[in-house]
Amino acid sequence: MYHTTGSGKVFSYVREYHTLEMVHAFIMVKTTAGKSEGLLADIRGLENVAEAHIVAGNYDIIAEVNAPEVYDILETVSSSMQALDGVTDTKTYIAMD
């Protein structure tokens, strides 16, 4: 089980049990106008990304990410996803169930 603190960002986590559970997260991605379709394949190809879809609403793409640790989720988002040309903003939601 993981505990997160902070408002909108993960600052720390505590692993209570030694299990093989994966951390599951949803990443909302805003893109530059006209870039969503091209970025979709790039996002789907990133390590730890299980699925990604173009969506209607405040964000352009939603990605589902699974990783062994919260750090791995944050690494995927901050180092890989946000580095893609055309990604303007991301919001990360860690699943609590």
Write a structural description.
There is one protein chain. By secondary structure, the protein is an alpha+beta fold. It has a single domain (23-94), classed as 2-Layer Sandwich (Alpha-Beta Plaits), CATH 3.30.70. 22% of the residues lie in helices and 31% in strands. The chain contains two helices and four strands; from the N terminus they run βαββαβ. It has helices at residues 36-44, 70-81; strands spanning 23-31, 49-54, 61-67, 87-94. A four-stranded antiparallel β-sheet has the order 2-3-1-4, covered by helices on one side. A hairpin with a 6-residue loop joins strand 2 (49-54) and strand 3 (61-67). The longest helix is centred in the C-terminal third of the chain and has 12 residues, at 70-81. The radius of gyration is 14 Å and the shape is globular. The termini are close together. The model is unreliable at 1-19 (pLDDT under 50).
Q: So what's the overall shape?
A: globular
Count of individual beta strands? 4
Q: What is the helix tally?
A: 2
Distance between the termini: 9 Å
The biggest beta sheet reads: 4 strands, antiparallel
**Structure classification:** alpha+beta
CATH class: Alpha Beta
Q: What is the name of the CATH architecture?
A: 2-Layer Sandwich
How much of the polypeptide forms β-strand, as a percent range?
Answer: 25-35%
Q: How many distinct folded domains?
A: 1
Mean of residue pLDDT? Answer: 85
Strand order of the largest sheet: 2-3-1-4
Q: Considering DSSP H and I runs of 4 or more, what fraction of the residues is helical?
A: 10-25%
Radius of gyration: 14 Å
Uncertain spans: 1-19
Predict the CATH topology.
Alpha-Beta Plaits
CATH superfamily grouping: Lrp/AsnC effector binding domain/regulation of amino acid metabolism (RAM) domain
Succession of helices and strands = EHEEHE
Pfam family, one: AsnC_trans_reg
Organism: Natronobacterium haloterrestre
Protein name: Transcriptional regulator, AsnC family
InterPro entries: Dimeric_a/b-barrel, Tscrpt_reg_AsnC/Lrp_C
